[in-house]
Amino acid sequence: MPERILLTSDDMRRALVRIAHQILEANHGCENLVLLGMRTRGAPIAQRLGKLISDIEGSQVETAEIDITAYRDDRPRSGADNGSVGVDSSLDLTAKKVVLVDDVLYTGRSIRAAMDAVMDRGRPERIQLAVLVDRGHRELPIRPDYVGKNVPTALHERIHVRLTETDGCDETLIGNGLTPVKPELAVKIVQARKDLGT
Prior knowledge:
The chain is of the alpha/beta class. The protein has helices at residues 9-27, 42-57, 79-84, 109-119, 164-167, 183-196; strands at residues 4-7, 33-38, 62-66, 97-105, 126-134, 146-150, 158-162, 171-175. Helix content is 35%, strand content 24%. Helix 4 links the parallel strand 4 (97-105) and strand 5 (126-134). Helix 1 (9-27) packs across helix 2 (42-57).
């Protein structure tokens, strides 16, 4: 199957606006709310959601980046790894309403790793999950609280979210053998857009 666009830039923007409103409604505002964006593309999505929520509520919402590398279940764990990555050590998540943010939800293993990283930084009041795309095929009992688009997929299919911050454009694609934009090309695209003022 040739690659095709699942979400255009406008589709992605509308999905994030809807998710921002849903997060505020479910949490009765943004008090004690923390958005944790999973590296790589979950982080800029969390930043966008944070800005949308701040614009709606008129007050800042805390956002941070989470790195699950040392918590993955497909690599050996070591004591040294545990403290070296994860969530910023200055961020205390105790009694906070944490929303994990990622681009695509698939097996659920990355989310489980992210929850381990969160629990190493305190005991949050609750942990929720926001994803731009849920493609199914879960291997763990994990479900998102907020979803931009549900996309039933075959196992051989790939979904790739491209963001202006990382890839130079906003779009979500599905296909059999998608290749991400090369980092050096993404940098050139981003710079060209800045030069053009777009």
